[in-house]
Amino acid sequence: MDYSAIGNALATRYGTTPTPAGYRALRLATASPGEDLPPTPCILVFAPESGSFDTGQGTRTGVHNWVVRLYYDQAGDLGRQAQALMKWAEQFADQLKGATQLGGIVTRATLDGYKIGFMDYAGKTYAGIEGSVKIVTAESWAATA
């Protein structure tokens, strides 16, 4: 399984998140987080936190739990940022709604949960949105002794 391809496909999909009216557009979406946070707002895709497999009939199916984060701005004015995050959440939540397939072995990608608030990155606190994305895969597979 090509985890890099899946991460890049998620970054590409979330990189097209429409900008809410009156707010700055996304500056970057990537599945290769660096040592420092890029200019905000940005989207970072993190490798699966967990996953599971089931096999049979020459197929291995898997469920993998990825994390996608929209870092809006460095933590500051909570009232202003809360309003912005609610607007961004409207767009963020729908990025996988229209088309749940990412291509390749990914048969379904769904946003299964999210949280809005503050999160740390490289020793600094940012206002943002964290999404839990469930990726379902199916690939040919044959057990060997």
Would you mind describing this structure in some detail?
There is one protein chain. With 145 residues, this protein is α+β, with helices and mostly antiparallel strands. It has one domain (3-140): STM4215-like (2-Layer Sandwich), CATH 3.30.2000.10. The chain has two helices and five strands; from the N terminus they run H-E-E-E-H-E-E. It has a five-stranded mixed sheet with strand order 1-2-3-5-4. Strand 2 and strand 3 form a beta hairpin. It is elongated. The relative contact order is 0.23. The model has no long low-confidence stretch (mean pLDDT 90).
Outline the secondary-structure elements:
Elements: H1 3-14, E1 28-30, E2 42-56, E3 59-74, H2 78-92, E4 106-121, E5 124-140
**Alpha-carbon Rg, integer:** 17 Å
CATH superfamily: Phage tail protein-like
The low-pLDDT segments are none
Query: Please, what is the average pLDDT?
Result: 90
Report the end-to-end length measured between terminal Cα atoms.
20 Å
Short description:
The chain is of the alpha+beta class and 145 residues long.
Attribute tags:
145 residues; alpha+beta; STM4215-like; five-stranded mixed beta sheet; 5 strands; elongated
